[in-house]
Write a structure and sequence with these properties.
Elements (H helix, E strand, L loop, with lengths): L1 E5 L3 H12 L3 E6 L22 E4 L3 H7 L8 E3 L5 H11 L4 E4 L5 H16 L4 E8 L9 H13 L4 E3 L13 E8 L5 E9 L2 E9 L3 H14 L5 E3 L9
Parallel strand pairs: 1-2, 1-3, 3-4, 4-5, 5-11, 6-8, 7-8
Antiparallel strand pairs: 6-9, 9-10
């Protein structure tokens, strides 16, 4: 595959290395401003690169303006900020090209979300808390992955609502609350914990990312499948279904 990289931060540097090790070609990059450090051709628009697929690990400020243009290149999008705006744009683009979006490119996180759905159907009387941990350079909180898990919980618990900060709450916890906490520190790659708690028992479901390579490999796996797909919007729920 000829791969266009949208953004050239830590994640797409890893993606470039792994892609080349797997025999793929990096067609070029799209970067913000005067960032010219990438050892690849720099493009201003997605289709200009004539790539087989574009892989995005960037930021809404970079990807959203690019999606204002006509796009025919298949897209693998991993940017998590401004999720609703990005998905709206991608759904529009999916009429002319195959598009894949995931708030977390790890297949294990997809499995975590599926396990959560089952647990929610069985543990409706348990209090629910969600905690995510990431490195000190991550700018959005809570993470896109935790937002995805929270959305799943809200879909399965009628009348529930998230509580992001209890520092100004001076009353006992309500059953309808879903606690959401974000921790930032050091070089934590990414940990997501879902905690079900009831009198005298606690059930925890956890996913720990031990290397950022799992996200890059997930994006490459998705790209490899996406280039053979018809136009449409894909995620981990439908990309690898039998055609």
């Amino acid at each position: 595959m000829r791969i266009l990289l949208i953004g050239y931060g830590t994640m797409n540097k890893i993606t470039a290395r792994l892609a080349e090790e797997q025999g793929h070609e990096i067609a070029g990059v799209i970067v913000k401003g005067n960032n010219k450090e990438a050892p690849y051709p720099v493009f201003e628009s997605i289709d200009e690169a004539n790539a087989d697929v574009a892989v995005d690990f960037s930021h809404p400020e970079l990807i959203l303006p690019l999606l204002e243009d006509e796009v025919e290149t298949p897209l693998v999008i991993a940017t998590t900020g401004e999720k609703e705006k990005i998905i709206e744009k991608l759904e529009d683009k999916s009429e002319n090209t195959p598009v894949f979006f995931s708030a977390n490119m790890s297949y294990g996180v997809h499995v975590l979300n599926e396990v959560l759905k089952k647990a929610l159907s069985m543990l409706d009387e348990f209090d629910l808390e969600m905690i995510e941990r990431h490195h000190n350079k991550k700018v959005d909180a809570p993470s896109g992955t935790l937002v995805k898990l929270l959305d799943t919980a809200l879909d399965h618990r009628d009348g529930s609502y998230p509580v992001y900060d209890r520092s100004n709450i001076h009353e006992k916890r309500k059953p309808e609350e879903i606690g959401v906490s974000a921790i930032r520190g050091g070089s934590i790659v990414g940990t997501h914990d879902v905690i079900f708690a009831k009198d005298d028992e606690v059930i925890e479901i956890s996913h720990q990312a031990q290397s950022k390579e799992i996200f890059a490999n997930g994006a490459l796996k998705a790209a490899n499948e996406l280039v053979n797909r018809q136009n449409g919007f894909y995620d981990y729920n439908n990309l690898f279904e039998e055609r």
